[in-house]
Each structure stands twice: as structure tokens, then as C-alpha cells.
Specification:
Blueprint: H1 11-37, H2 48-53, E1 59-65, E2 70-75, E3 78-84, E4 95-99, E5 105-107, E6 122-129, E7 137-141, E8 144-148, E9 156-158, H3 161-176
Antiparallel strand pairs: 1-2, 1-6, 2-3, 4-5, 4-7, 7-8, 8-9
């Protein structure tokens, strides 16, 4: 009796591998859809859920409109998630401040990304860029002020705008040294 040397996989073995890969892929897709439907953002860390869901994209924006009652996610200026849970309470609209080119703080005025929604005023927009940076801003909301730096770390929460301004002035002095 001669023994045959086996150099590869049988057709049955290959089919089993393909079926297993298909099952794993379908499980991952169903999990991905659940993340989309339950995306919840946190005022101090609005990017965490987005980075988990959209880790491979270039430019993302969180946009809240209609007195911050509705929030959406845009990818490269196109709406990709129809609606997410609002970051802010319906009764409290945040005051958003951005930094001008000369470093002074000014009240933000946001542009609507979706022309179909031109009648709805944007009250909050937070951008995440593929290079690891984000929109630098101050949010005055309820009884606190949240500083969101231009990179994804060191968010600071202050009890007043004056405390936030003192922190930023000290930060500027440290950087200029």
C-alpha cells in the first residue's frame, strides 16, 4: 500500500474556512450597526465614541442644531449618521467660544453643513481631523466651562470662564518660554 503525500487543503477544508470567515464578518457588521444606533457622546470627551466608530476616516464633524436638540455626524461634509443622542440637555443651549488667529476668544458662529437643513441654526460643531487634531474650543454649559484642546487629550473642566481664561493665559506663557 502506497502512502500519498499531502501538499494542500481539501475542498471541504477550504469551504469550512470560508464559512467561518463569513460568520465572523457578519457578526462584526451587526455589532457595527449597533454602535451607529446607540452612539452617545460626552461633553468633556465628544470624540471617544466617534474614534471607536470612525477610526479610519479623514474628517468628521459632530453638528448639533435646532437649539442643540438634534445632533448628527458628518464625514467629509456629508451626513453619515442621521441622528445621535444629543450631547446637551434640551433646556440648556451651550455657549461655544473659539480662538481667533490672534489668540483671543470669541463667540462661535457655525455654518450649516447640510443645505437641506438651512433653516436650522447650528449651535455646536466639533471637528476631528485625520492628522489627530480637533477643534479647540471652550464650552460654557450649565455651571461649568469645558476646554477642548486642539488634540485628543487633557480636557479641562472649570467652575467659571474666569478660571478657564487664567488656565489658558498660563498655558500661553508656558508655551512662549
Amino acid at each position: 500500500m502506497s502512502k500519498m503525500k499531502r501538499d494542500g487543503f481539501t475542498l471541504l477544508e477550504m469551504m469550512i474556512v470560508v464559512v467561518l470567515i463569513a460568520i465572523i464578518y457578519s457578526l462584526l457588521l451587526s455589532k457595527q450597526k449597533k454602535v451607529d444606533q446607540n452612539l452617545t457622546l460626552d461633553i468633556a470627551h465628544p470624540y471617544r465614541a466617534l474614534l471607536y466608530r470612525f477610526w479610519d476616516h479623514n474628517h468628521l464633524s459632530i453638528v448639533c442644531e435646532d437649539r442643540c436638540k438634534e445632533c448628527f455626524v458628518y464625514e467629509d461634509q456629508k451626513r453619515v449618521i442621521k441622528e445621535i443622542k444629543p450631547i446637551f440637555d434640551k433646556n440648556n443651549t451651550p455657549k461655544v467660544y473659539i480662538f481667533s488667529d490672534n489668540g483671543s476668544i470669541k463667540r462661535a458662529d457655525f455654518i450649516q453643513l447640510d443645505p437641506k437643513q438651512a433653516d436650522k441654526r447650528v449651535c455646536f460643531r466639533y471637528d476631528l481631523y485625520g492628522n489627530g487634531s480637533s477643534t479647540e474650543m471652550l464650552l460654557e454649559y450649565k455651571d461649568k466651562v469645558v476646554y477642548l484642546p486642539p488634540y485628543f487629550d487633557n480636557q479641562k473642566i472649570f467652575s467659571s470662564m474666569q478660571k478657564a481664561q487664567e488656565y489658558l493665559d498660563n498655558l500661553k506663557m508656558e508655551i512662549s518660554r
